[in-house]
Amino acid sequence: MDFLLGIAVVAASVWGTLLILRGSLIGGCLAFLFCLCCCGHDLINFHIGPAPLTIDRLALLAVVSAYAVKRRFGLADPKPFAPLDWLLASFIGVLTLSMLAHGWQAARPTEVTPLWRLLGGYLIPLVVYWIARQSPVSDSQVRTLQKAFVAFGVYLAITGLCEVAGLWQFVYPTYIRDPGVGLHFGRARGPMVHSVTYGMYLASALLALWELLRNAPTRRSKLAYASLAPLFAAGLYVSYTRSVWLGTGLALLIVAVTTFPVAWRRLAIAGAVAGALFVGAFKLDAIVGLQREGSVANTRQSVDMRGSFAYVSWLMFQDRPWFGFGFGQFPTAKLDYLSDRSSDLPLEQIRGYVHHNTYLSLLTETGLIGLGLFIAILIAWSRRAWRLWNDAAQSEALRSLGPLTLGVLAAYACQLMFHELSYTPLDHALVFLFTGLTAGLTTHAVIANRAYSAVRPWFFLSRRAANH
């Protein structure tokens, strides 16, 4: 049976590669992303060699193969390295050197190894980023990308609502029904079996829905898109994840401020401030004590643990501020600090947990060097997205990727404050797809502007000399 299944999967990968070759690389990246969510190890896996093969890994191989062939025959859109790309390469280099320099092979078999965190959390998403950056992008491809995300969002929202309602006969893939698979059983978690990642993808679908609604050609299509917004909002709510709510709200605010007329921008900001004040004044206790898959006490403990993580991270940073303890070493390096008695915080409660803050995780593992590079990349990505939105030379469809990417980055930045997102490629692959597309569309403009700035003083000096 396994042999027949292996033949079927190999045949599917070959046909998939042919389809990608005839289609677009962006479509291939999108197909890989959805396979990553729905067709991972929990759905099906089989062994042909030392590592298990899964459909999402075969999909990645198909996309890489299609990119190599298209690049060989001049069907890609190669762009030269820009400062942003060197920044990203430096960050990945720091992670790699930090991992290799700190006993990365000594991890226990029950832990996620530093090598897998580097491969799954950063290198696989980097492949998606590079292919998206080097892909030719058309208006129709952007609209297809947005519609595909909206369709995926409809599936996620319906699946999440069925999960919390107990309508398991309508929940597919079936492994979502298993409480022993993934995390956060009892919340909406979708095929990712993780409510945070579920919320990230559904928030991205909501942002894509807004861009389609904003540019819909007819009233009927506007009404059709608008009717999906309550469904998406309900799906996000039943994730019962505060960081998802916060990230989605911030993303929607940034997209509104970016795309609304000036008068509406002020109204949107005023409404957001008023809503935040209302929640802080009347609903903060209810949000902190939100009952999810566990008890209210467990939810409050989850909030309290973040103070312990922050305190331990501060102690570790003081000892090794510049280079940290090594990428992937926080789960073991933190153990020496849990016996500290100079604080009243219950530090022992974080003993069996990975870090709950990506920023602090990078700070403790790679020091100020790694965290500084990472924050610089986020800022550079945001600037590229803003530049794309304000580039009058681009079409409206291509420009719409700017606010969409800004919104995705805003939602992502919020999740980083409350979760460590480098243990699977799901979240980073999503972010790297949008930032790769944005970087590709703005690279030529950035290089042209830099070249013009370098030539301009000589040009004006020469013209002044000629006039005299």
Write a brief caption for the model:
This protein is 69% helix and 1% strand. The protein contains 17 helices and 2 strands.
Description:
Helices cover 69% and strands 1% of the residues. The protein has 17 helices and two strands. It has helices at residues 2-22, 25-38, 55-72, 83-100, 114-133, 139-165, 195-214, 219-226, 229-237, 242-259, 262-288, 296-319, 330-333, 358-389, 396-399, 401-418, 426-467, and strands at residues 46-47, 52-53.
- Summing up helix and strand content along with how strands pair, one would put the structural category as mainly alpha
The total tally of domains equals 2
Q: How helix-rich are the residues, as a percent range?
A: 55-70%
Helix-strand topology string: HHEEHHHHHHHHHHHHHHH
What percentage of amino acids are in beta strands? under 5%
Distinctive features:
468 residues; mainly alpha; 2 domains; two-stranded antiparallel sheet; 17 helices; globular
List the helices and strands and how they pair.
Layout: H1 2-22, H2 25-38, E1 46-47, E2 52-53, H3 55-72, H4 83-100, H5 114-133, H6 139-165, H7 195-214, H8 219-226, H9 229-237, H10 242-259, H11 262-288, H12 296-319, H13 330-333, H14 358-389, H15 396-399, H16 401-418, H17 426-467
Antiparallel strand pairs: 1-2
